Automatic annotation (TrEMBL):
Fe cation binds at residues 129, 134, 174. The keyword Endoplasmic reticulum does not apply. Residues 1-271 form the Biopterin-dependent aromatic amino acid hydroxylase family profile domain. Its EC number is 1.14.16.1. Its cofactor is Fe(2+). Belongs to the biopterin-dependent aromatic amino acid hydroxylase family. This is Phenylalanine-4-hydroxylase. GO terms for molecular function: iron ion binding; phenylalanine 4-monooxygenase activity. Pfam families: Biopterin_H. Pathway: Amino-acid degradation; L-phenylalanine degradation; acetoacetate and fumarate from L-phenylalanine: step 1/6. The keyword Iron applies. It comes from the Bacteria.
């Protein structure tokens, strides 16, 4: 059982762990301690803030508290629930690969975890963001179907169309809110895996707008700030209904209409 050589990610210098021939990844004691810190912190923060579908998925996954989970254990639960599984990837991946994986119901997971000094913000999504933030929602049929549909559409889309599709993904899968009988709740993985965003998203600071796919497609965003705007679903079934609509037709309409004015200050170069 020989471990493969690890690889350095392209931008941040994080070392991506390669699985051995049995699919097992050996995580260090420091990395497992980081996972435990992140888990304990986020589990305390999300109580009363995330939707029940996420909590149900988290219970099904039964993620370990004191060590980074093995992808095979996550896959076992996802396959039984919605036919999904994870795919080990080296951090950020090309659009083509990303869409191919989603279309095949394989969710990309970068096999590195952030350093203790970068607990709150990371340029590239790590295993905590992907597993804790996203995988519980992939046990939900409506969310899982929308994500697979998104992958199929992106696979066939032209580069300019993909830029608009990315905005739809950002405003739903990454940073979506949903109204429930218990109140407004979080379902987006980009919020759920971030302590600052978890508190910010449901505060009085950002704008909450009813979800409209055309609006989402036309909304600029930046990846390096707390979001100034969140779109709110009536229910998660809205995503399933959206997956059956002509999303690419909406993309073309959004391209014709152009983007809304940004709700954030520009960077040195706008994102």
């Amino acid at each position: 059982m020989k471990a493969r050589d690890d690889q350095i990610t392209s931008k941040t210098g994080y070392r991506v762990h390669m699985p051995d021939d049995d699919g097992h990844i050996a995580w260090s004691a420091r990395e497992n301690a980081t996972w435990q810190t992140l888990m304990e912190r986020q589990l305390a923060l999300i109580e009363g803030r995330v939707c029940q579908e996420y909590l149900d998925g988290l219970e099904r996954l039964a993620l370990p508290l004191d060590h980074v989970p093995q992808l095979a254990d996550v896959d076992h639960v996802l396959k039984a629930a919605t036919g999904w599984e994870t795919a080990q990837v080296p951090a950020l991946i090309p659009f083509d690969t990303f869409f191919e994986l989603l279309a095949a119901r394989r969710f990309p997971v970068a096999t590195f975890i952030r350093a203790p000094e970068e607990m709150d913000y990371l340029q590239e999504p790590d295993i905590f963001h992907e597993i804790f933030g996203h995988c519980p929602m992939l046990t939900n049929p409506a969310f899982a179907e929308f994500t697979a549909t998104y992958g199929r559409l992106g696979l066939e889309a032209a580069p300019k169309e993909r830029v608009y599709l990315a905005r739809l993904y950002w405003m739903t899968v990454e940073f979506g809110l949903v109204d429930t009988a218990a109140g407004r709740r979080i379902y987006g993985g980009g919020i759920i895996s971030s302590p600052k965003e978890t508190l910010h998203a449901l505060s009085d600071t950002p704008v909450h707008a009813p979800f409209d796919p055309m609006d989402a497609l036309r909304t600029p965003y930046r990846i390096d700030i707390l979001q100034p705007l969140y779109y709110v679903l009536d229910s998660l079934e809205t995503l399933h209904e959206l997956s059956e609509r002509d999303i690419m037709g909406m993309v073309h309409d959004a391209m014709a209409q152009g983007l809304f004015e940004p709700r954030f200050p520009p960077k040195s170069l706008s994102a």
